[in-house]
């Protein structure tokens, strides 16, 4: 029916074949001009198997072929064939040189994949399949080649010309043009190629590696941002040191470059020696960035740096292995961030992503294993499952082998596969071999989709002083309809008596004791564990530190959860207990709402929170997490059917009663934090600010009299964290003060693009009746630009993902708004359009009214005309 969809083709892991050809080296010569760019490429190609006679098929997309020569002889048109996505040369010798000249139009490239313009810059994004939009090539990760890149451009407009590796030559040319030649001594796949040209300032530093080599560190930004790179530079040095200490890995080139780019689909890209970053994850000053922004900068800088070993030196054989580099690197990034700040709060943040986004993905139409079996558009598989669940899977290996065993496995992995493109099997086998074990059952985490549900039953025998736990696992059906075999998983366990004192564990079967605690090793559909010499019926603390990415249910009473929230030695599980308490209360209020009863929050719950607020908690930021009422999405993942209105009403009621009943305690804590906060970026100060701003949010909910406090904080704020804290607190208020502060904020920061994005995002998540009208106005505001992914995510995606009440509007206006934006962005930037769809994929789980409305929105997109592969795949799979 639709022309374009005829080309849509599913790629399967089982069809993988080694490439027929190797490309030993590629010499690129890129002539950048204002109207078009000319790319000369010289390839040294060799057939892998001499007896083969297959044609050479190169990838290419949107390219204009200007000339083609094989071993210096021009090819006649009959000797090759071009399609929209390939170039086939019918007959080639065993080993040969191929010269290709193409013309491309980066100025017109709105998809931000391949070579494109961001403001006055030229830059690239080649992962996953962007290089084929620059020149014809075997654009697949298992083709690794030596790259030499010469960039030619106007000297005044583009004084800085960057590519991967080391600079080996530079010079002047006629007509005010100049060139720079780069050579990367490491073989790499094309997705790691990068090029940047523009008028940028360089911030320099250096780092001495553990073996004594000197590495130049360079961050390139637009001139007006040169005072916002200190934090990123420090973070880079911390990351380099950390990787040497934790994994014995040091950097391998003479220079490490980072460029900040305003228009970027992803967070950042680990191109060899030349990382290209979304400016959001590089630029940060106390005037413009919040504490969370600083933490994100540190994490993303670390992440991309760690890829140099896990991703670049050892890369993926094919894109099904994406988690080989991403799951592992997210895990390394998590370890790094935990070492720099609060390990508990970091763990809570990571668990929250799994429990809201990843669990939702598993329960939706796009569910896939950490290593998918098939895809239509690989860009749709840069998912929470591949990244975040992938990291959880690595974490379980770390738990099972312990720090020393895990490190032994990683050392063997680096030793065996350095310089190669490998599979997840190769990785897992290295870990197994180093520890003298097999991981065949463990591998199910990589090829079975879905969230395992672990149901725990208890039985206490007072006479025998025995406590028995029976764990039963089950994994719900996913769209692939495959049956699931039991997973192996470590479940961290501790037992407490009624006073919150730990009981020593005596258990004969399968208890794995480590320095991090004791773990039940669950590996069958049903596992039983008997604990001896248990004096009284204990309260078990289960799945401590979120030891496995599963949903665990246990028949806790409210009193037991309060006990764990107030005294569990596993700090993560204190938070977990607080979320279980909140979820339980919201579910019970929902039931009352659906039965038309009045909603009453139990006083026992409020009293428990009161005690919590009066307790001495190890860190203020942890208390901030403990008093955070579970979000809409968090509770939704615990519901069979999401009764939208009931959930919103119940949650609001709990927040209001909490705020009003605990007003006095919250005010005291606010004051105490204010006194402890010296305004610096020290961990303790950030921790106090986190708690202070959480209290302020509730205080404004408690009554209008607290608006003055928010206003005072806004006016006296020493940093963006306090400014944003005050604005967030006031964001849902109908007071006229809200508009006054929002106007002032825009006036103050209108020249700071990243801060304007915060201003857009806050308005998008305001819980106010006219929010959609306001967003429609903002679409035309000078501070918004549909071509800029950060702005689209800030205004449009924030509305879909963080404003449940208005997104799930009873007449479907919220869904329709998103559908229209997807249609608008589909042709311009398919990756960004596809990302906006996330909120619309869950319609089967909603109550009948919302489900039908959301389905209509998807149908509207489906019937809107030619869809990109990105949007087509998600919409059709969702409607199936
Ligand atoms: Zn990554």
Describe the structure.
The chain is of the alpha+beta class. Helix content is 40%, strand content 21%. It is built from 26 helices and 33 strands. The strands form 8 sheets. Strands 6-5-9-3-2-12-15-14 form an 8-stranded mixed beta sheet, with no helix packed on it. Strand 2 (21-32) and strand 3 (37-47) form a beta hairpin. Helix 11 packs parallel to helix 15 (683-702), helix 14 (663-676) runs antiparallel to helix 15 (683-702) and helix 15 runs parallel beside helix 17 (720-730). It starts with 10 loop residues before the first strand and ends with a helix. The model is unreliable at 1-6 (pLDDT under 50). Bound molecules: zinc ion.
Biggest sheet strand line-up: 6-5-9-3-2-12-15-14
Q: Largest sheet at a glance?
A: 8 strands, mixed
- Give the strand tally: 33
Helix content: 40-55%
The kinds of small molecule bound in this structure are: zinc ion
């Amino acid at each position: 029916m639709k022309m374009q969809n005829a080309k849509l083709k599913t790629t399967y892991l089982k069809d993988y074949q080694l490439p027929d050809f190797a490309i030993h080296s590629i010499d690129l010569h890129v002539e950048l001009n204002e109207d078009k760019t000319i790319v000369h490429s010289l390839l040294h190609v060799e057939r892998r198997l001499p007896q083969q006679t297959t044609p050479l098929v190169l990838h290419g997309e949107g390219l204009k072929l200007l000339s083609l020569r094989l071993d210096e002889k021009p090819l006649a048109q009959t000797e090759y064939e071009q399609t929209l996505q390939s170039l086939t040369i019918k007959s080639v010798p065993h080993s040969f040189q191929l010269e290709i000249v193409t013309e491309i139009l980066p100025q017109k490239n709105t998809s931000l994949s391949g070579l494109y313009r961001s403001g006055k810059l030229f830059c690239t994004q080649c992962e996953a399949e962007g290089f084929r939009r620059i020149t014809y090539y075997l654009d697949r990760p298992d083709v690794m080649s030596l790259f030499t890149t010469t960039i030619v451009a106007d000297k005044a407009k583009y004084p800085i010309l960057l590519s991967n590796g080391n600079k080996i030559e530079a010079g002047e040319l006629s007509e005010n043009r100049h060139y720079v030649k780069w050579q990367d001594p490491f073989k790499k796949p094309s997705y790691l190629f990068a090029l940047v040209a523009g008028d940028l300032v360089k911030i320099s530093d250096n780092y001495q590696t553990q073996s004594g080599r000197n590495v130049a560190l360079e961050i390139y930004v637009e001139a007006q941002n040169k005072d916002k790179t200190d934090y990123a530079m420090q973070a880079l040095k911390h990351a380099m040191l950390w990787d040497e200490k934790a994994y014995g890995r040091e950097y391998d080139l003479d220079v490490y470059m980072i460029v900040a780019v305003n228009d970027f689909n992803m967070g950042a890209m680990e191109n060899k020696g030349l990382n290209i970053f979304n400016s959001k994850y590089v630029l940060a000053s106390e005037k413009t960035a919040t504490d969370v922004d600083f933490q994100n900068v540190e994490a993303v800088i670390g992440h991309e740096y760690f890829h140099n070993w896990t991703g670049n030196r050892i890369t993926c054989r094919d894109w099904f292995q994406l988690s080989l580099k991403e799951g592992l690197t997210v895990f390394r990034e998590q370890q790094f961030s935990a070492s720099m700040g609060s390990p508990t709060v970091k763990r809570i943040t990571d668990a929250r992503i799994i429990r809201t986004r990843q669990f939702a993905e598993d329960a939706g139409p796009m569910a896939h294993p950490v290593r998918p079996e098939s895809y239509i558009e690989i860009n749709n598989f840069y998912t929470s499952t591949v990244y975040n669940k992938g990291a959880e899977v690595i974490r379980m290996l770390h738990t099972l082998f312990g720090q020393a065993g895990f490190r032994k496995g990683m050392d063997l992995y680096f030793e065996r596969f350095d310089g190669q493109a490998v599979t997840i099997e190769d990785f897992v086998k290295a870990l197994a071999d180093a520890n003298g074990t097999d991981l065949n059952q463990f591998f199910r985490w990589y090829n079975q989709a879905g969230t395992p549900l672990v149901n725990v039953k208890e039985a206490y025998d007072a006479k025998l002083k025995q406590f028995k736990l029976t764990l039963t696992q089950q994994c719900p059906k996913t769209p692939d309809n495959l049956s699931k075999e039991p997973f192996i998983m470590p479940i961290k366990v501790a037992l407490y008596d009624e006073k919150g004192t730990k009981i020593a564990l005596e258990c004969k079967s399968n208890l794995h004791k480590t320095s991090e605690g004791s773990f039940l090793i669950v590996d069958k559909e049903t596992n039983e564990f008997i604990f001896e010499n248990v004096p009284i019926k204990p309260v078990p603390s289960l799945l401590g530190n979120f030891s496995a990415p599963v949903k665990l249910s246990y028949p806790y009473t409210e009193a037991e959860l309060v006990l764990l929230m107030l005294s569990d030695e596993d700090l993560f599980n204190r938070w977990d207990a607080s979320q279980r308490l909140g979820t339980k209360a919201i579910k019970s209020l929902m039931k009352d709402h659906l039965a038309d009863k009045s909603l009453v929050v139990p006083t026992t719950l409020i009293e428990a929170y009161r005690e919590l607020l009066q307790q001495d908690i190890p860190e203020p930021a942890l208390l901030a997490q403990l008093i955070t009422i579970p979000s809409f999405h968090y509770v939704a993942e615990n519901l069979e059917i999401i009764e939208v209105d009931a959930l919103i009403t119940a949650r609001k009621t709990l927040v209001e009663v909490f705020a009003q009943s605990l007003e006095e305690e919250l005010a005291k804590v606010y004051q105490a934090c204010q006194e402890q906060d010296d305004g610096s970026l020290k961990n303790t100060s950030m921790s106090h600010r986190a708690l202070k701003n959480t209290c302020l949010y509730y205080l404004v909910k408690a009554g209008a009299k607290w608006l003055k406090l928010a206003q005072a904080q806004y006016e006296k704020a020493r940093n963006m964290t306090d400014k944003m804290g005050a604005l967030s607190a006031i964001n849902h208020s109908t007071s006229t003060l809200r508009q006054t502060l929002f106007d002032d904020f825009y006036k103050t920061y209108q020249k700071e693009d990243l801060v304007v994005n915060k201003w857009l995002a806050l308005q998008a998540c305001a819980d106010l009746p006219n929010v959609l009208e306001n967003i429609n106005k903002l679409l035309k505001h000078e501070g918004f630009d549909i071509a800029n992914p950060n702005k689209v995510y800030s205004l449009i995606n924030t509305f879909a993902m963080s404003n449940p009440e208005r997104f799930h509007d009873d007449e479907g206006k919220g869904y329709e708004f998103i559908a229209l934006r997807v249609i608008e962005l589909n042709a311009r930037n398919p990756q960004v359009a596809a990302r906006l769809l996330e909120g619309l994929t869950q319609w089967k789980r909603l109550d009948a009214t919302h489900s039908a409305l959301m389905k209509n929105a998807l149908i509207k997109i489906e019937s809107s005309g030619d869809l990109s592969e990105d949007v087509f795949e998600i919409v059709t799979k969702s409607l199936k």
